[in-house]
Amino acid sequence: MADIKIYNVEALGKPLGQYSHVSRVRASEYLFIAGMLSPGEGFDAQCSGVFAQLGEALKSAGAGWGNVVQFTTYLVHSQDIPKFMAWRLREFPKLFPNGVYPPNTLLVIDRLVQEQFLVEVQTVAAI
Q: What is the rounded CA–CA span in Å between residue 6 and residue 42?
């Protein structure tokens, strides 16, 4: 069983969204989940599909959202940052009911593997 402590460092200031500064982990096993993509009409639909796939990947290893220690998020359009923040503000309390959100690095890139995709999320979990 992983020992996961997710926390913020006061000296770093308050996080800008639903994430924490640090994950400290002692685990016998880690899961590295490839960046997930999901087709869909619009950003919210794709984001929901991506996190549904991540949930399935976690479940396949007997893990859940409480095992996540880091996200890396890739967006194609900087204009989608507010949409991503709003999606997480709405959905993360359902995924992380204790209000402790894993660290997240957010990158805006030129494009993903196919033009239709707007968001990709890579995940690390400890079990």
A: 31
pLDDT digits (tens, 9 = 90+) for 27-40: 999 999 999 999 99
Amino acid at 22: V
DSSP per-residue letters across 72-127: EEEES-GGGHHHHHHHHHHHHHHH-TTS----EEEEE-S--SSTT--EEEEEEEE-
| Backbone torsions φ then ψ of 82, nearest 5 degrees | -60, -35
Strand partners, 26: 3
Give the C-alpha separation, 97 to 64, whole Å: 12
Distance CA 58, CA 55 (A): 5
The model's pLDDT over 42-57, given as tens digits with 9 standing for 90+, comes to 999 999 999 999 999 9
Residue in 71, 77, 68 with CA at minimum distance from that of residue 111? 77
Query: For the chain, how many residues are written?
Result: 127
C-alpha 113, offset from chain centre: 19
Alpha-carbon distance 125 to 127, whole Å?
7
